[in-house]
Structure formats: C-alpha cells, structure tokens
C-alpha cells in the first residue's frame, strides 16, 4: 500500500463522519484534521509554553512568552547580528560538511571494496573515531589558530566518521550474489562498481549523510561556544551572558530550524535517488 | 531402461555454435587441509541445441560442474570447450540462471532484462534503443510485457525468475546454464515454469545445461540426464530420455524413466 493509499483511507474515514457537510467544507475539515493529527502536539507544547509564561507558572524571564521571542527574532534579524550569525554558521558547517562528504564517500567506497585497505585503516579509524572531537579541539586550535580554520576542521573531523563508516558498511553489505551475477554477464570491475556496488550502497550512504549532518550542527554549536565572537552558537552563549533571553531562544530556534531543514533536504534527495528501496509497493 | 555409456568425445576441430565438450575434467576442493575430489575424470559431449540435465546428491559436484562451465570456477585438470573455444573465465556467451532471480532491485524489469546487453562495450556495444527493443522482445517471450516498468520487489517468485530467464536469453547466449532454477518455487509454479522453459528452449534452440535434484524435472526437461554419483569411485552415467514432447508426466513411460533414475541412486 502506498502513502497515497494510506492518506486516502484516512480521508475516507473522515468522510464518513462528515457525511452531512458540503464538499469544500468537508475537505477543509479533513485537511485540518490531518494537520492536527500531525502537528497538534507540537502546537500544544508551544501553547503551553506561552500560557505558562504569561500566567507566571514558570519564570517569564527564563521562559519568555513566544511573542517576545518572535519580536527579539525580528529585531535580531533586521537590526542585530542574527542574520550575520546565521550566515557565518552556515558557512562553517557547510564547508566542513561538503569537505567531509568529498573525502568520506570516495574513501568509504574504496575501503569497502578492498579488504586489505580496510583491514589496514580500520584500527586507526576506530581510534580516531572514539577520540572525541571536542577533546581534540584544543589541539586543532594550537595547530590552526583560533580563526575559521580550526572551527571548520573540528566540524569536519567529527562529521567524517559517521559517513565513512556508513559508506564502508553499505559497500560491504552489497549482495555478493548480485556481484557474481554481473560478472557472469561480463561486467568489468568498473561496471560492477557503477551498476551494482554504488546503487547497492546508496541507502547506507544516505543514513551516513543524515548522521553526519546532525553531527555537523552539534559540533558547529560546540565550537562556536568555545572560541568564537560570531555565529549562532556564540549568540546563544552571548545572549545568555547578557541576559537577553528572548534573543537566546531566537538563536536556539534558528539552530533547530537549521537541523530540520538539513535533514529534510537529505530525506528529499534520498526519496529521489533510492525510490526502489523505501517506496512502498 | 538402460543407461547409455558415456559417449567418447571424438575430437572435431570445427565445432558448431552451442556445442560443449568436457574432457578429463577433475576438480577438488581443499577443506580443512584435506583435498576432497568433487569431479574426477569426467568426459561429456553435449550437442548443439541439446538439453542436458545433471542430477546428483548434494556433494556430487553438479553445481561445481555448472560453475566451471560458466567460468566461475577453474578446473584442476581437463579441457572444457563451448562452441570450440576453451572456457577461461566468465563470458556473456554462457548465460547463467541461478536459483535466486538475482535481479537488481533498483532497476525496473525492462532494465534488468537489458542488463547484459548494456554491459557490452567497444565494438560489441549495443545502442540503448536497440538493447531496449531486444529486452522487450524477450520480456514478451516470458509473458511479462505488462510488467516492464515494475520493480523486482513487486514481482512474485515465479515472475522474478522469468525476468532472470529473459535477461539470460537477451544476450543471445550460445549455452544456457541453469542452477536449480525452480528449486525455490512452489510446486504449481514450478510445473508452469518447466512448461515455459521447454517452450522457450524449443523456440530459441539454445543448448541448455540444467542442474536439479528434482528427478521428475529431469525427466521432463532432458534429452539426456547426467547422473553424478556421490561415491567418487563410481563412474558418472548418462541416461537418454527417449520421449516425445510435450511430455506427459503421468504416462507409464515417463514413470519408468523416473524409476530408472531413482534406481541410479539406489532408492528403488
């Protein structure tokens, strides 16, 4: 059953309840019902926050009402430095992420196929992976200075491993029977790679991309909190330090939105490229 | 029923397309430091367009023989020729059909059938449109024209295996190698597929070497049955199936052949 089928079943069920309603009104109600079932809890949470703040169930200076946050967000974007912070944060995590993809995917495809390379590199990779990138950040600062390079590098360092390991795993999980089949039909090494190994490993690569994107944002914030004078992570710390709590939450929400957007982009790309693996029958 | 003695292969340098000659073939596997012979001094000649079915208990070397013909295994000794050319490594002129369909899950049915053709490079390269047309032809031969755009996971086991057969035929091989192709299918689908395969084999006039452990399947499909014994001191035997086609599974003659095969395994 496809997603569409599922939706149409939901529509049909709602339709039964609304037999008396007119058609446009009915479809409007159905749409509202679908929206509420998906986002109702989220809206409820935000509402609770707002009311709790106004009614002083919680300390409003720690949990300001949402309109204060919205106002601070608008001011921050138009007059303050929030837009510039967003730009520099995007630049840092973006460069690091692209560099990690450019290194990890080809290296992972190579390592997954050639056992000797994987055997030789695996122990040192495991050591690097288990060493927290944050623990190494002071080392990177010593080596690369306190500027952009050390921040980009620490994000890159943390981002590369989930993607590399997922890619290697994806290549190793490719069905050897399919590889044998391709060989029987006279496929060259390159053809086996292009027609069998790469498409077979793609779903795992996408899992790695999502893990890495999450990791990139996590390390971005951490590195900006430690040694930066701009960026969203810096803004969160700085606003808190100056007790500009609405501004602090603006930066936090912006970071959350960034993570959602990154994840959603990758999922969309995955749906396009791996339709065969996750599309329902 | 008399099992024919192995025909000694006369050396004919001018071999025709689809002829197979296996001479003095030996193969053993090394397991835990010991050599286990699976094939010892095998001699078989298969005529062009013939259907040879290999039966034998597990460990008799029937699948190994097929993999040597495909070029997936190398023989320890002996000479294997298809269409007069010595077999060394895999080659698209020897198409193999496996027990599992082994379809690429990310390619639709038509793309899977065209797979072998699309791999051809250099002088033998087939234009995309031509490969597709040929794939469509073989897809219709296995009765799946309407499923060209479907993906493998949407197919039943029998349909998927048909796609595998169409993929093998699409490269227009000199010889079709089938390794227990219907072993994973239910009994009814298996009978349908055996009928289909007979029809296709008849239409394409391709040499067919099929491995099975289903003796009824052997009698139904074979011109000759090669019986590989598990005890290596016993010689392999060849049994002619002298029945008109299409064959009637319930006829007395059919049953007698089946019993003769059972006897070969000491099961009767």
From TrEMBL, chain A:
Per its UniProt record, what Gene3D superfamilies does this chain match? MetI-like (1.10.3720.10)
Q: Which SUPFAM superfamilies does this entry report, sorted A to Z? A: MetI-like (SSF161098)
Annotated TM spans? 39-58, 94-112, 124-146, 152-171, 192-223, 243-269
Q: Does the keyword Membrane apply?
A: yes
Q: Where in this chain does the record put each ABC transmembrane type-1 domain?
A: 86-266
UniProtKB keywords: Cell membrane, Membrane, Transmembrane, Transmembrane helix, Transport
Q: What is this protein called?
A: Sulfonate transport system permease protein
UniProtKB/TrEMBL annotation, chain B:
Organism's domain of life? Answer: Bacteria
PROSITE patterns with a match to the protein in the record: ABC_TRANSPORTER_1, ABC_TRANSPORTER_2
Q: Which keywords fit this entry according to its UniProt record?
A: ATP-binding, Hydrolase, Nucleotide-binding, Transport
Top EC category: hydrolase
Which terms does the record give in the GO molecular function aspect? ATP binding; hydrolase activity
Q: Which family does it belong to?
A: Belongs to the ABC transporter superfamily.
EC no. given is 3.6.3.-
CDD domains (UniProt xref): ABC_NrtD_SsuB_transporters
UniProt-listed PANTHER family: ALIPHATIC SULFONATES IMPORT ATP-BINDING PROTEIN SSUB (PTHR42788:SF13), TAURINE IMPORT ATP-BINDING PROTEIN-RELATED (PTHR42788)
Q: Where is the ABC transporter domain?
A: 20-255
- Asked whether the keyword Nucleotide-binding is assigned, the reply is yes
According to UniProt, the name of this protein is Sulfonate transport system ATP-binding protein
